[in-house]
Amino acid sequence: EPKRKAAFGSVGRRIPYRILHVINQDGESLGNMHRAEALKLMDQHDLKLVLLRENAEPPVYRLMTGQQIHEEQLKRAEKKKAGPKPGMYIKELSFSSAIAKNDLETKTKQIAQWIEKKYHVKVTIRQAK
Predict the structure, then answer these.
(1) Is 34 left (phi over 0), alpha (psi -120 to 50) or beta?
(2) Are 30 and 44 in contact (CB under 8 A)?
């Protein structure tokens, strides 16, 4: 059974960087330190070291409890769900509230075709002047 990759950063003892910027579990910066110091701190407080920003110089790690890691993963999963999925198209249609009956019928047929094709349809009705 392959190990499941964490939803964000690396969690644990394998840290490829010598110097890290460490943030404690309350979000306060502890400054730059050697990875051995960070691991010692992690063990003393019974926390896990999680990579937040790899491309920063030095890379930013945060000390977190298991509960905090779980909550962060749930938050990121929610954000990912919220965005439109790739391959999903949104069709937008807007018309005036004074639209003629035959034009309205044409537009409703168009909307029905889009829905059959599994498009998401957004309809905007403007107030007639």
Answers:
(1) beta
(2) no
In single-letter form, the type of residue at position 24 comes to: N
Amino acid (1-letter code) at residue 63:
L
CB of 38 closer than 8 Å to CB of 20: yes
What CA–CA distance (Å, rounded) separates 102 from 3? 60
For residue 87, what are the contacts with CB-CB under 8 A and spacing of at least 6? Answer: none
Distance of CA 32 to the CA centre of its chain: 27
The pLDDT value recorded for residue 111 is 92
- Please provide residue 118's backbone torsions phi and psi, each rounded to the nearest 5 degrees: 70, 25
pTM of the predicted model as reported, rounded to 2 decimal places: 0.53
CA distances from 60 to 5, 12, 38, 100 (A): 19, 14, 11, 60
